[in-house]
Amino acid sequence: MSEKLKVGILGGTGMVGQRFISLLENHPWFEVTTIAASPRSAGKTYEDAVGDRWKMTTPMPEAVKKIVVMNVNEVEKVAAQVDFVFSAVDMTKEEIKKIEEEYAKTETPVVSNNSAHRWTPDVPMVVPEINPEHMKVIDFQKKRLGTTRGFVAVKPNCSIQSYAPVLTAWKEFEPTEVVATTYQAISGAGKTFKDWPEMVGNIIPYIGGEEEKSEKEPLRIWGKIEDGVIVPATSPVITCQCIRVPVLNGHTAAVFVKFNKKPTKEQLIEKLVNFKGLPQELELPSAPKQFIQYLEEDNRPQVSLDVDYEKGMGISVGRLREDTVYDWKFIGLSHNTVRGAAGGAVLCAELLKAQGYITKK
How far is 315 from 293, CA to CA, in rounded Å? Predict the structure, then answer.
């Protein structure tokens, strides 16, 4: 066995689980050795369990095809095989909370793509370029769980990735009010056009729970650790509408911002293109070299041209211009299942390894 950390994927047969598996192929630090899913998939090889439901554009990695899928509910058994797990299980919120904590209590770190623990006060919800210091709250969480190395860490919702990093880059100009409308890809619902033919040529002006997440989660990311919990920031005020559009991958956001301090266009662009975080300093394997790119053309960013920027881990911004009601407006684009889901979680795990929270068992 290699020196790589042994990774389990909980919920490995679903769309995000598949994205984890494709992103982790040939990863320099991590190796997928265990896949767990619902009892109906357990006992089958991964190839048979997925069958014709492989949704990635790249082929299923050879290394995982013959892995025999385990029952995700057999927590002790799965945990005994791995150093840590990624969670992409499809269950109710309460069931997810319970099972992720059960894995953590076996001294197995859990890096989750699910929303269940995003508001658990001592669980860090991290975009590694923005709030890596929030991982310190894990020490308080371990005390609550009674663990020495087990914990849960989560990444935020996919919809905020196309504007929260931008607003972070502009922090010194003190954004006070933000209006965002997100145009969200169908893969965010775990679907392709084959699964969801009624989305072709259609727009649905509602995605359950999404607007609340889009308004509140950035504030938690910008919050501070106080008395062992994360206390969300109180500004800027964000209001959001979330729309499902007939695009496979890529969430686009149209955003209006009001600032306390009045920046110039040149200052705003300079802050975007020079914005770096700890992942860039540490040269983590999945970190984009350039986190945010600014595109000058009037018709960019576009999903078909820009969604895979920096292998889907970068963010594209364009159409920055003055507004008649707010101060400035822009368009942002991020890859919802790479940066917004599995890729963001992989980067969190790389950061946790670099910080010493994830080690070999």
Answer: 6
